[in-house]
Amino acid sequence: MPQGESVSASLIRRSELPRVGIVAVDAVIDGEQESIIVHCDGERIVAWLNICPHQGRRLDYVPGKFLIDGGRLVCAAHGAIFRLEDGECVGGPCRGASLREVPAQVNESGELVIGSPGPRTSD
Q1: Domain boundaries in the chain?
Q2: Above 70 in pLDDT, residue 116?
């Protein structure tokens, strides 16, 4: 993640996510609302910005609905194919590029947290 980027959001409880599958959640990144793809595979959780590296368009065909073919994520706009293990494009117009990963972890309270919790400031 580029230095200086601010990402932190408690989004959803792990128990509300699928054991295996993809969901979209929204988080604020550098003051902007962003769509985030969360891939759950048992205990492993990985998150990426919902942006195809080919032309910067969303990967979902309607908000939160993704094309999955053979266990791979397919961009609805131009058919780029991404491995769910690491977000690398293995077919289509941006082969070799990767989805932009966003840190994600489940905290002690069982909530999915996107980004690293930063210092709290008072208003």
Answers
A1: 8-66+101-114
A2: no
